[in-house]
Amino acid sequence: MRAITIxxxxxxxxxxxxxxxxxxxxxxxxLIEVAATAVNRADILQRMGFYTPxxxxxxxxxxxxxxxxxxxxxxxxxxxxxxEVCALLAGGGYAQRVAVPAGQVAPLPKGLSMTEAGxxxxxxxxVWSNVxxxxxxxxxxxxxxxxxxxxxxxxxxxxxxxxxxxxxVTAGSAAKLQACRDLGADVLVNYRExxxxxxxxxxxxxxxxxxxxxxxxxxxxxxxxxxxAVGGRLMIIGLQGGVKGEVNLGTLLTKRASVTATTLRxxxxxxxxxxxxxxxxxxxPLIEAGRFRVVVDRVLPVEAAAEAHRIVEDSxxxxxxxxxxxxxxxx
Length: 331
Ligand SMILES: NC(=O)c1ccc[n+]([C@@H]2O[C@H](COP(=O)([O-])OP(=O)(O)OC[C@H]3O[C@@H](n4cnc5c(N)ncnc54)[C@H](OP(=O)(O)O)[C@@H]3O)[C@@H](O)[C@H]2O)c1
Hints:
It holds the Pfam family ADH_zinc_N. InterPro entries: ADH-like_C, ADH-like_N, ER, GroES-like_sf, NAD(P)-bd_dom_sf, Quinone_OxRdtase_PIG3. With about 325 residues, this protein is of the alpha/beta class. The protein folds into 2 domains: about 1-120 and about 265-325, Medium-chain alcohol dehydrogenases, catalytic domain (Quinone Oxidoreductase, Chain A, domain 1); about 125-260, Rossmann fold (3-Layer(aba) Sandwich), CATH 3.40.50. The protein is built from 10 helices and 15 strands. Helix 4 (about 150-160) links the parallel strand 8 and strand 9. Helix 3 (about 120-135) crosses helix 4 (about 150-160), helix 3 crosses helix 9 and helix 6 (about 195-205) packs parallel to helix 7. NADP nicotinamide-adenine-dinucleotide phosphate binds near residues 171 and 315. NADP nicotinamide-adenine-dinucleotide phosphate (NAP) binds near residues 146, 153, 172, 237 and 315.
């Protein structure tokens, strides 16, 4: 098969579509003939050499895919060759075939094309596990998501809005904020021009927000805690603003608030399977009812993965940049 390989860590030009050995299907796994995958921020870090895949994971980038089951490993029930599926991967999505534990695979939801579904699983599972399973966002709560127009952001805005929360977003331009508004965001904050803590105070009559989904880490840590309501939950999933920060523990204590940081990729297979099952139960009905979609910025052929990485690195996108693998030659 062919896959995007990273010969050496570095810039986008290091991504090369090359002939590689086929993956073997282990017990409890399925082999997927990949139709589409998507660029996630983590793929860029991996390309640069800052994010080593977890033990046992494929070394090719790609944390999600859609496609058809080509083979079923020993002990797998519920899937047969030919089934149309999408999957949460620990790596290996930028390839023509990938082996994945069956618990991380879900049927293609009705209402999404095969290509769109290539950008569904990583963001839906990340948002569902953090915002809903861990932080318990509920109808009537106020939710702040930073980077509201990102792949993660466009997923979080839609899910929180559809499930009855009031949504505050930050983004770096008027056009991106408008995209968030179109998806259901209620309060728009341009992080280049405004202080989000002030805007949260104004928008909540000084109460603060119940849950924050944060991609900035250290740079926003103290301000995020200031923006929380009593009993608020700060969920850190990205470290774009650094890893070491200072927080006023007095504020945290007085608010009886919590700070949690998680990563999905390194979780054990059983935990990922639980998240996939929960996300499927909650989100597939919304997709089928036309209340949630994958926001697609553009679709590029997988051979143009370097260009796709440049676009995402420069934040020139809204939603997901998808990679079409089905159309690629040389399998
Ligand atoms: N822990 C996990 O399991 C997990 C899983 C998936 C993703 N993530 C993390 O989630 C984040 C989003 O991932 P993605 O793939 O959706 O990335 P993405 O599409 O590349 O988005 C990155 C976002 O960061 C925003 N941003 C940059 N500077 C900002 C600032 N000062 N304040 C607020 N937002 C700012 C950008 O906003 P503008 O374009 O408006 O500037 C952009 O929307 C990344 O940090 C990623 O590492 C974590």
